[in-house]
């Protein structure tokens, strides 16, 4: 080997090192930008949720009160028609509240992740008929973005259990272990081939996996036909 060869090799190694550093810097920058985008998205959802609740929600409440007042002293058939209108108004009000909560539950901002997960389990349990247990261990203080991230993952997994699994029982478990936050959502439903889950083109699981990666996290799915589904998401505690 000549000295030129060794210089070339050292030179190549140095170039390779510099390239690697550039790739790492660019990836960090990309993650930072993508995290800002999802923060902006959550801010927009929060604003829309508040507008829906305080704007349309208040108007519908006022309209319902007026309709109820109109009913005083109305005779038979007219009264029935008015009652039908009041019922419709009530449904529109309920839909508005549900949509507002789905967009961004205020409890997540007011009381944090644990309370939000319990409220989500309660309301989805009532609407779907599934029994949803929530088990939350001792957690370190969590950054707002990480709370939102874990809430969205649990929300997607629970919606999937209600929509696809025909599950009767679901367990949501959140613990902090070995430097990671571990979120598990396990259902006793019909299960599915995990490769098909990812390949099916649904934006839910794919979107969650991408969102977790932005925080240095990852997601695994374990499932097979008839054996239920278990989703496990890991996020580094310091993310
Ligand atoms: N808990 C589950 N039990 C059984 N099958 C599931 C479960 N979760 C997901 N799947 C399967 O994996 C597929 C992909 O799920 P994903 O959440 O990505 O999409 P989706 O729910 O179909 O649509 P979207 O979430 O965009 O509304 C589903 O269509 C379903 O076939
Ligand atoms: Mg889904």
UniProtKB/TrEMBL annotation:
This is Oxygen sensor histidine kinase NreB. Keywords: 4Fe-4S, ATP-binding, Cytoplasm, Iron, Iron-sulfur, Kinase, Metal-binding, Nucleotide-binding, Phosphoprotein, Transferase, Two-component regulatory system. PROSITE patterns: HIS_KIN. InterPro entries: HATPase_C_sf, HATPase_dom, His_kinase_dom, Sensor_HK_TwoCompSys, Sig_transdc_His_kin-like_C, Sig_transdc_His_kin_sub3_dim/P. Its cofactor is [4Fe-4S] cluster. Its EC number is 2.7.13.3. It comes from Lysobacter dokdonensis DS-58. It is found in: Cytoplasm. GO terms for molecular function: 4 iron, 4 sulfur cluster binding; ATP binding; metal ion binding; phosphorelay sensor kinase activity; protein dimerization activity. GO terms for cellular component: cytoplasm; membrane.
